[in-house]
Automatic annotation (TrEMBL):
Protein name: 7-cyano-7-deazaguanine synthase (Queuosine biosynthesis)
Lineage of the species this protein comes from: Archaea, Methanobacteriati, Methanobacteriota, Stenosarchaea group, Halobacteria
Taxonomy, superkingdom: Archaea
Length: 435
């Protein structure tokens, strides 16, 4: 029988560690690293059943993909119930997921001190800034996580330091607290092997398409318990009417809960352009110098030349703001550059971007252009076939052959060869979520 066993969950001050054992058929999906997460608050007094949540949040989707059962010594009863709800959603969304059962020697009804606090996963992008504006009366703790788009690799130190500095500055300016978490959740999992087995079933990667809603929120559990955070918000990327297989959705995130904390998928009723409208109203009423950070290329500001920078700048224009006042160097001549880049396929675009450009197009149809260049671009966009701008989501044959062979290859061999091969072959492009 396929199984995953959480051997122990230990807390040493601010550091959480756990070892995992698996049945032989699942060994390939895990590396030899212990699971580890570092917090900036002591978790020594957090019950073991709550400390188990971060590792369970990472391994359960892998178990469900293989019909495996998961065993743990102790788990918070509220979270155990939440896992059943999340499993139901993920299994209905991905037909390759088979499900499985969580077995615990003990379930506990933890009784945290009622803190009445709230928290928000925050990067300073459009989505998370909109969520801050919507919930600013709660003075949410701003939570930033290193481990997904910014990895624990020393090569990402500059990006992490830039994010920490920016979020800390924003928090200081708005009289807010911060929480910074660092985890090896993706290097603890054998992510290349997960891609080899499941990439053909999902539109994106494993974590974005399956694991990140449960995974990122679950990482926060010990910290939220220690800080008395009762409401934990994660900003929506998509909105009503977008039917994409994405690991963070209302029917996932709104079901995630543990003793003392309820999670919320925030802003799903708003399109990206409507979120920019919320920000624009806030800028005009309260903070005229607010800057956003959405760049796909750098973390210490916006490059102003990538697809996401241009898209955000156009959205700001449509919301009645001048992009140059909010972090984006943008002039009318850039409209021609955007059109040319889209027509020539310079940017690798997926279904996400198609929906977002369509959202911009809908707003442009009801907006009076402010210049001839803007009018010309909006006229072109109105007639453009956005489907033609989306890249073929099928990986190259060489990638497919490598992954097919990997399903039967020794896991250590594949986990070593695949990242080096793809980096040399195609120069993998990092895409940051819109939060």
């Amino acid at each position: 029988m396929s199984s995953i066993v959480i051997d122990h969950v230990s807390a040493d001050g601010t550091t959480l560690e756990s070892d995992v054992r698996t049945s032989a058929d699942l060994e390939r999906f895990f590396t030899d690293e212990s699971f580890r997460t570092d917090y900036d608050v002591s978790i020594a007094d957090v019950p073991e059943g709550v400390r188990a949540i971060p590792v369970l949040a990472q391994v359960c989707p892998v178990a469900w993909a293989n019909g495996a059962d998961v065993y743990v010594d102790e788990v918070d009863a509220t979270f155990a119930s939440a896992l059943e709800d999340v499993k139901e959603t993920l299994c209905s969304m991905h037909d390759f997921l088979e499900g499985g059962t969580l077995y615990a020697k003990r379930t506990i009804d933890a009784d945290p001190d009622a803190g009445g606090e709230s928290g928000l996963l925050f990067t300073g992008g459009v989505d998370s800034t909109c969520s801050y504006v919507r919930h600013r009366d709660e003075s949410p703790t701003l939570i930033s996580i290193r481990g997904w788009t910014i990895t624990p690799d020393p090569a990402d130190d500059d990006d992490w330091n830039a994010l920490r500095s920016r979020v800390s500055s924003f928090a200081a300016d708005h009289d807010l607290e911060t929480a910074f978490l660092e985890s090896n959740m993706l290097s603890f999992l054998a992510h290349p092997m997960l891609l080899a087995h499941y990439k053909r079933h999902v539109d994106g990667a494993w974590y974005s398409s399956v694991g990140h809603g449960l995974g990122l929120l679950g990482l926060c559990a010990p910290m939220a318990y220690a800080r008395g955070i009762e409401d934990l918000y994660v900003a929506a990327t998509h909105w009503e009417g977008i039917d994409l297989e994405w690991g963070s959705r209302p029917d996932i995130d709104d079901n995630i809960r543990w003793a003392g904390t309820q999670c919320h998928h925030d802003g799903h009723e708003l399109t990206r352009q409507e979120r920019l409208d919320v920000i624009a109203d806030y800028v005009r009423d309260e903070e005229p110098t607010l800057e956003l950070q959405t760049c796909n290329v750098r973390m210490d500001g916006n490059c102003g030349e990538c697809e996401k920078c241009y898209r955000t700048a156009v959205g700001l224009r449509l919301a009645g703001l001048e992009p140059t006042a909010h972090g984006y160097l943008f002039v009318d001549e850039d409209y021609h550059e955007i059109r040319t880049a889209l027509e020539e396929g310079r940017w690798v675009l997926g279904q996400d971007e198609r929906y977002m450009w369509d959202d911009i197009r809908e707003r442009a149809r009801e907006t009076e252009p402010t210049s001839d260049a803007e009018a010309a671009f909006f006229e072109w966009l109105d007639a453009a076939d956005l489907g033609d701008l989306v890249s073929d989501s099928s990986p190259p044959l060489s990638h497919r052959l490598l992954r097919a062979g990997a399903r039967n290859a020794p896991a250590p061999v594949y986990n070593t060869v695949y990242p080096a091969w793809t980096s040399a072959k195609s120069g993998l492009r990092r895409v940051r979520p819109g939060r």
